[in-house]
Known about the structure:
The complex is a heterodimer. Helix content of chain A is 68%, strand content 1%. By secondary structure, chain A is mostly helical. By secondary structure, chain B is an all-alpha fold. Chain B has a single domain (55-331), classed as ABC transporter involved in vitamin B12 uptake, BtuC (Orthogonal Bundle). At the A-B interface, helix 3, helix 4, helix 10 and helix 12 of A face helix 1, helix 6, helix 13 and helix 15 of B.
Amino acid sequence: MDFFHTIIAILESTIRVSVPLIFAALAGLFTERAGVFDIGLEGKMLGAAFAAGAVAAVTGNVMMGLLAAVLISVLLSLVHGYASITQRGSQIVSGVAINFIVAGSTVILGEAWFRQGGRTPALSGDARFQTVTLPFADAVRDVPFLGPIYSELLSGHFILTYVAFALVPFSWWVLYRTRFGLRLRAVGENPSAVDTAGISVIWLRYRAVICCGILCGFAGAYLSLAMSAGFVKGMTAGKGYIALAALIFAKWRPVNIMLACLLFGFLDAFAIRLQGNPLPLIGQVPVQLMQALPYILTVILLAGFIGKAIPPKAGGIPYVKER
Amino acid sequence: MSNPYAKLPGWAEYGLIPLINLVVAFLVAGLVVLLVGENPLNAAYHMINGAFGRGEYIGFTLYYATTFIFTGLSVAVAFHAGLFNIGSEGQAYIGGIGVALACLWLDKTMPWFVVFPLAIIGSAFFGAMWAFLPGWLQAKRGSHVVITTIMFNFIASSLMVYLLTKVLKPLGQMAPQTRTFEAGGQLPKLDWLMSIFGLNLGNSPFNVSFLLALLAAFGVWVLIWRTKLGYEMRTMGHSPSAARYAGIGEARMTIIVMMISGGLAGMMALNPIMGEQYRMQLDFVQGAGFVGIAVALMGRSHPAGIIPAAVLFGMLYQGGAEISFEMPAISRDMIVIIQGLVILFAGALENMFRPAIGRAFASIGRRSAVAAQTRGA
């Protein structure tokens, strides 16, 4: 029974750390499927987390925080869009630039406005997301096996957690069952065909980039308004890159993205749990190996040793109309 | 593929446009300074004074510049072949192993000029090996070098934490670093070079690896514009299909270029490890690999542009430290913003002002042509 509880605890924290990955990876899904590569997920998430923390601290309203996060993130997305769609600059270079600009300015502005060493003030009450207890969670707690799974694993998360998991089928529906989704995928594979059909490649890609901004905004808001009570400098700590890895690992498919994020989240939760404890049969595993595992797995996948990850065909190439 | 932009004269292409992009980047950075409630002109004054005001400051500026020349060259070499190596950071980090091993092995018995060449070979070897894998994976398995090098940066960082806490750390020491090297693992400073100009180096760690960096810059120029390999690289960078028709092995070139790029990044480790700290510490690279991207973009991937760009970033690093003394609201993170802005304006938005400048040149050209005609008539 003790072992069972440990597993429940690990899975529970798996869900908690997977949520920002799911938001960010789905965000990447929308732009990359439209042919705009985005390694600026990290920066957008960080900027959103800062905006959320700052605005929620000042207004005391969690929804204002979320709104600010989405606004800032969309704004950064539009910078990326302007550079890579309108100006036809390198998408990679633009993403790198955004990551640096955000990493620096969140610290400078945070310190100038709040003077707490790059943090925003700690949030409490209405300024922060509260956990949601699902109906009957307390009543079924003592039911063997299923009780703990329902009341501890599934209940008691933030509302954004449920939103993240609901977004997985929703993204699938948008991408594969709507006209917008069909065109979005087409513009990532063969933009000139879309152009020939009389649909604006530029506007379609901008819309994809805005979708990405909204979702990154949720990812950032989750970090500073739900997972922790306020913004801490550099709080994304590479999550944007893990999300990027998950996106590739999932071969740019929504349901796979959720599974990949849960896997990477599990590795993270497991590594924290493992710290210093030897594994049965294998013995001591260095924590660093566990931390590097998502990246190693992605490299192995990309190398085509487990399946083959084929990116959208027109990804990374700016579209130039023929003259 | 047709080039959508008009051709400009060389000095505008390589001088004016980078300058305008740089000025815009600094103007936006000035806005951030205003937003924080400080005077941008004061900040600029403190920065320039802090970077060049005294011999010691100049020493620090050039010390940082040394590092950025290596990483800038690393990124630039890959650019020439159409590859984007974001992994200079990780390659420099791993390159440190080569430096540390050479120093730990021979520092007690040999003088520095024996250890130094071995450390150069070691750093270049380890850096090149860390770049070999992404290069090989792109060449043979089709995985994109941008993504793999990002992943390799993180893997390098985990690996180095492991090595420094478990393997290279001497027994009974808490800090995750190697032991301090003896005289053989310490590079001499360049006081003599500074005293020619009548400057006193003070405590700054400006050392021999600066000369190596200049040598490397010259070597890269020779490689890219004066050798067959460099010609093949540039061909591949301009037009992969032309390179294929010309019989240039794309896979072989990708691997070679990535290894040269990684080797240059690895050599960056010489400067902080043998030149300043005399030991290998956690995170000694401190983002220099990423600065290399900004330096290469600003220097237009040409060694003659990379050296001044590296000095500029050295100035930002050293002067930025001085600003944060004088204006506590502006910490060293300001440099990260400027770095990002330079990458944005000199890299991703490099063409933003081009149409306007092109039009200006066209109208000047037309007017002078008309003037010449009227004079002729």
